[in-house]
Write a structure and sequence with these properties.
This protein is of the alpha+beta class and 121 residues long. It has one domain: Aspartate Aminotransferase, domain 1, CATH 3.90.1150.30. It contains four helices and six strands, in the order αββββαββαα. A hairpin with a 2-residue loop joins strand 2 and strand 3. The radius of gyration is 14 Å and the shape is globular.
Length: 121
Amino acid sequence: MTYDEYNKFCKSLPATSYVVQWGESHVWKVGGKVFGIGGWEKTDEPAFTFKASELNFDVLSDQQGFRPAPYMASRGMKWIQQYESADKSDEELEYYLKESHRIVSLGLTKKKQKELGLNQD
């Protein structure tokens, strides 16, 4: 996945906003809270960072091309970085980005969720 494809996908998720920060990284937020970061890697290969469930964090931490996210995981947060995508499908990353969006949106206040039209099922 390229950064342009990443940005297009994240933009398609509900109630998102975009900002460039942290060394020109593509940062996506829901309700003002970060759910995805494109960038943050010093190589030519795109890198994508997202919040993960406890299970996904444990599984992905041991998979080739994934690692606990620099800075965040060392502070006890369950964030993963995909730093190699050669043998990974875009659909797999899209799944984890959707999950990150969902997890972060569930952390918003009920009032904020309702205001943004999120998690109303």
